[in-house]
Amino acid sequence: MMISSRDTKKLQAILDRIADTMSTASERGRVANYIPELANVSNDHFGLAVVPVDGETLISGDADILFSIQSISKVFTLTLALEKYGSTIWDRVGREPSGDPFNSIVQLELEHGVPRNPFINAGAIVVADLLVEGRSPQQAIAEILSFCHGLAADAEIGIDQDVARSEERTGFRNVALASFMRAEDNIRSPVGHPLDVYFHHCAIAMSCRQLATAGRYLAASGDVHGDATKRISMACVRRINAVMMTCGHYDASGEFAFRVGLPGKSGIGGGILGIVPGVASIAAWSPGLNVKGSSVLASRAFEELAKATGWSVFAAPRRS
Amino acid sequence: MMISSRDTKKLQAILDRIADTMSTASERGRVANYIPELANVSNDHFGLAVVPVDGETLISGDADILFSIQSISKVFTLTLALEKYGSTIWDRVGREPSGDPFNSIVQLELEHGVPRNPFINAGAIVVADLLVEGRSPQQAIAEILSFCHGLAADAEIGIDQDVARSEERTGFRNVALASFMRAEDNIRSPVGHPLDVYFHHCAIAMSCRQLATAGRYLAASGDVHGDATKRISMACVRRINAVMMTCGHYDASGEFAFRVGLPGKSGIGGGILGIVPGVASIAAWSPGLNVKGSSVLASRAFEELAKATGWSVFAAPRRS
Amino acid sequence: MMISSRDTKKLQAILDRIADTMSTASERGRVANYIPELANVSNDHFGLAVVPVDGETLISGDADILFSIQSISKVFTLTLALEKYGSTIWDRVGREPSGDPFNSIVQLELEHGVPRNPFINAGAIVVADLLVEGRSPQQAIAEILSFCHGLAADAEIGIDQDVARSEERTGFRNVALASFMRAEDNIRSPVGHPLDVYFHHCAIAMSCRQLATAGRYLAASGDVHGDATKRISMACVRRINAVMMTCGHYDASGEFAFRVGLPGKSGIGGGILGIVPGVASIAAWSPGLNVKGSSVLASRAFEELAKATGWSVFAAPRRS
Amino acid sequence: MMISSRDTKKLQAILDRIADTMSTASERGRVANYIPELANVSNDHFGLAVVPVDGETLISGDADILFSIQSISKVFTLTLALEKYGSTIWDRVGREPSGDPFNSIVQLELEHGVPRNPFINAGAIVVADLLVEGRSPQQAIAEILSFCHGLAADAEIGIDQDVARSEERTGFRNVALASFMRAEDNIRSPVGHPLDVYFHHCAIAMSCRQLATAGRYLAASGDVHGDATKRISMACVRRINAVMMTCGHYDASGEFAFRVGLPGKSGIGGGILGIVPGVASIAAWSPGLNVKGSSVLASRAFEELAKATGWSVFAAPRRS
Fold first, then answer.
1. Taking CA atoms, what residue in C is nearest to D8?
2. What strand order describes the sheet that includes D47-52?
């Protein structure tokens, strides 16, 4: 049986049970340590938010604490680029699972500087290059932030400048990726520009509540606020969900599809955004990561939520 | 808007329009030529069948002509293995997209003989090894065929022995894969046994009508005949759909997810099986292939059908 | 200063000192254990033999005990193939270092079934295929053995049939390589034929004395017995020495060139054949291997011998 | 028969014949075109110089015209680093053939930022990092230039600043390599410093006469000027010759060893430095390259010179 997102009471009970379980879980993974700003976050946190397509937002745990959304921001920059430039972006980035870790440079060499998909680092840097072309990094960053404000209906959302600066100081591997693609002519601006944009959008901070709200359009056929005042095209929504399903968790994407059965995108800040098309947008967060770079408890929360609610794109109830 | 699978009239019109378009399409791809039995099939064929979860079967074009289902058979052997051995099979085969062509041996070396997923050749040979362990190839082949008879409710379905023999004579690359995995101890029977099983189940011949009927359980939450007399477990169904979504078309799986948005599995005989969970099982067939080994017209038919019906797991209508 | 190979007394003292050191060395590596026939050899052995271009043979330690020459046999099959077929063999096998382990299949896939060089397993199987074409494996094996008899002037040299049978029973990775090349049409006989030849020539047993004698032509400009009665062409000699230098120790070839400075070929039976052009042929043997598959003590013996004698192709004394 | 380097008359005739043949050769390859300064060099040039260990320098063709020595400079920076830091440098760079093109980043990823050898770009950038550590790029460049002045006994040798600037502007792939190694902590200075050094030493301009003179120590057991006033250690000389033999021509190193049989190092300016240990240092130059990035005519000149003189480390005359 599938639980309706409008069955608020039952759903809230499920969320609370999950948050409860996670608060005492002993297997919590390891907090990302490559920059101090991420390493210093306490691994005790767990938050969960569900924003139904129609119905009120439900939360449990630390759903109002800000965290670094990191790679989840790639969903929003891809949406922005698709809305601005349409399908021409696919000339410069693919949409196949890579089968490799998020920052691999091997495939980039074999495939002449065209990244496999927009969710691995190289692909997201190409998207950043599209967004920065013909303007300054500051302008592009401002546009991305403003786009996120619109999606989340919250102009308070900002960038953690300490995180951005730290990434800039330590992100040599991303410099390598960008320089390599510049050599292959798939980066068009000075290498520092898309990197500047990339490091900043990865440093956007949101709470679970804000993140699930921002992702609502992916569950709601593109209707951003639920009142048809702002729309992302349906074609864009379908395609982003598809890329999230096949590529959203690097070389663990198959595992998430297998265990959870929903389009999702993880970030090494410990967040995961997941989409139940037609039903709800979901955000979970806990800082500790597994070896593939996904949050241990946020992954587990999605698995338990999917099991308890029956939400899965692979096992829809009869609806015809 | 999403079309209901019970709106038979509208749906039949869509199928007929697609079959009509395909019959005159000039870009038809190239028929697989590695064995004479496949090379001799006329590239003029196109067939399409839709088996709704509840409702009558609809067909158009050459939907009753037999073709070699080839790799689509891997869906059925995986189901059989999962039903028999449960999740222990995942110790011997992964469930991540490979990012490589169907018969690549590179990843197999890097990952010590454990194939990335059960739909690349190496993975399907491991599944065949599971099914043949402790018995003769003939017994395992008979069991697989009998399982397909049950799924399709048609005991006429058989193996094209000429195709099986030809594959056996020319399948050196599959021998290489199996020998390599034997060296890594991930094939347990004599190398010839799983290969014998594999070559035979790939040579099963079905029509679009039979294939879509056989795949019905994947759309119907495991209910094989629609009358609850025979069930595949729901967990199995969800997981097979997930693996079809992320790995069903080798290194073009992302493309199918992106363009069509449904779990699917292609075979180099030109067939594609696609699933709309809760709605219908679909089979399309046309022998000409693209460079990735998928049928040009069957792929296109799925794309047009998805567009015309709104069927996609990534853009469900409100249903809560 | 370079020691002359005719300074017998000084040279014998050097050999004895080396053999003495090796007899008590504690770091001896691990005996190959993939077949029982190799695993059962005692790791206490160490033998060394030097056959000067002109002058008497010098030995020390276990230089008359038979061991399995394994991959060193590839030097002799390559010589035989070059003498029979000339440079046409380079259409089917390259002569570049592979940068990969001896039995890697990765490069073979990327380069469409043409092995990088004749000393990795795949390349040696291609050479075996050349030698077996148009005849039975038994005939090809007999020809190789007879060729070795001629080189070593010793018709007693034979094949350890237990080793050959064991390799045949367990050599699945070599079956994989051969099947893969068959699929790419770079094996022309039935796959079992070159493998049969390969498994048998790798099972040839020689002592250090016999092996250094058999390799003498590579030091002596092709003059097999030192009396001009039997000649290998100078072009062949130069080229085999070159391939030994760049490819003789798999992915540790650079290391041997760097430390020893002589063309050499190792085998996992623990033997190494080394050549000082114009001076001497050298064989060392000790069963324990390092992680790259080369004998720990035989490698060390070559390094110490090179240091003590000044023998190196990279630091010749003034001679013009 | 081997020709003595003191048989000046015979040797001069050989050089003249080779220069003559090359002047009219129609198959001349393509001049490197990635920077205008290299692309504008006429492909008509051919120069050859032989500097014997004892005896007068012989030249033919355009042996006094300056060209960009490019990667040949890596021989001199490696020598300088070895003399300064000894064998500790091998902790940061290997000495195995790479089996890959000169600027490949694949292997670097698989082997965690430690380049295979000091002659691929990544390895040379590590050597530059060693030389620049604790000082400014200008100081390191001055030291390298001064070292070359000493080797060639010619303080006129300089850097083509236009070439250096062009490389800096376009060398994104080298930036990628350096950034990648910085991420793996195998570059210790700010990424721009070793790159600055690297781009400048690759832009050193020499004539064939100067280059062969500068390489003389590699043939003369480390005796730089032939009068024992300046010495490179013998261990260093042997080892550099070994690395030149196995790694001097990227993924065509085996080919040069096979065809020529001498340690050598090529540059994409069209130059090749080759060493006959104990006999002579040789430089050849012609701007047109083959697909592997080696000069077509300089390679051919070495092959013909080796054939005419008998010079090869793999086929020494009897000398004991």
1. C320
2. D58-61, D47-52, D280-285, D271-276, D264-266
The reply to whether domains C8-67+207-309 and C71-202 share a CATH topology is yes
- Which tens digits make up the pLDDT trace of B167-217? 988 899 999 999 999 999 999 999 999 999 999 999 999 999 999 999 999
The interface pTM score, or ipTM, of the predicted complex is 0.93
Q: What is the pLDDT of residues D219-239, one digit of tens each?
A: 999 999 888 888 999 999 999
Pairing between strand D204-206 and D158-159? antiparallel
Q: Are A100 and A106 in contact (CB under 8 A)?
A: yes
The dihedral region occupied by C59, where left means phi > 0, alpha psi between -120 and 50, and beta the remainder, is beta
Which of the four CATH numbers 3.40.50.620, 3.40.50.300, 3.40.640.10, 3.40.710.10 does domain A8-70+205-309 have? 3.40.710.10
Question: What are the extents of the domains in chain B?
Answer: 8-67+208-309, 71-202
Q: Longest C-alpha distance within chain A, in Å?
A: 56
* Closest CA–CA distance from residue C164 to any residue of chain D (Å): 31
Taking CA–CA distances from D314, the nearest residue in chain C reads C238
CB within 8 Å: D263 and C314: yes
Q: How far apart are CA B266 and CA B272, in angstroms?
A: 4
> What homologous superfamily is domain C8-67+207-309 in, according to CATH?
DD-peptidase/beta-lactamase superfamily (3.40.710.10)
Integer Cα distance of D277 and B106 in angstroms: 41
- C53, C87, C258: which to substitute to probe chain D, counting the most D Cβ within 10 Å? C258
User: Over 90: is that where the pLDDT of C5 sits?
Assistant: no
- Using an 8 Å CB-CB cutoff, list chain D residues near C107: 99
Domain formed by D71-202, architecture:
3-Layer(aba) Sandwich (3.40)
Chain D residues within an 8 Å CB radius of A175: 175-176, 179, 182, 191
Per DSSP, the residues of chain C read: -PPPTT-HHHHHHHHHHHHHHHHH-S---EE--SSHHHHTS-TT--EEEEEESSS--EEEESTTS-EE-GGGHHHHHHHHHHHHHGGGGGGTS--S--SS-TT--HHHHHTTT--S-TTSHHHHHHHHHHHHTTS-HHHHHHHHHHHHHHHHT-TT-EE-HHHHHHHHHH-HHHHHHHHHHHHTT---S-THHHHHHHHHHHTEEE-HHHHHHHTHHHHTTTBSSSSSSSB--HHHHHHHHHHHHHHTTGGGHHHHHHHT-S-EEE-TTSEEEEEETTTEEEEEE-SEE-TTSSBHHHHHHHHHHHHHH---TTSPPP--
- Domain D8-67+207-232+240-309: CATH class, spelled out: alpha beta
Tokens of A194: 């898309």
Report strand pairing: C288-289 vs D30-31.
Answer: unpaired
Mutation pick from B303, B314, B318 vs chain A, by most beta carbons of A within 10 Å, is: B314
Chain D nearest-CA distance from C260, in A, is 9
Closest CA to A283 of A305, A255, A261: A305
* Residue in D97, D237, D317 nearest the CB of C254: D97
Asked if C54's CB is within 8 angstroms of D320's CB, the reply is yes
The CATH code belonging to domain B8-67+208-309 is: 3.40.710.10
Residues in chain C: 320
Chain A residues whose CB is inside 8 A of the D110 CB are 106
pTM: 0.90
Residues of B in contact with C199 (CB under 8 A): none
Low-confidence stretches of chain D (pLDDT < 70) are 1, 101-103, 316-320
Q: Which amino acid would we find at residue D305?
A: L
Count C/D contacts: CB-CB distance under 8 Å. Answer: 163
Burial of C70 (0-12, 13-18, 19+ CB in 10 A): buried
Closest alpha carbon within chain B to A306: B238
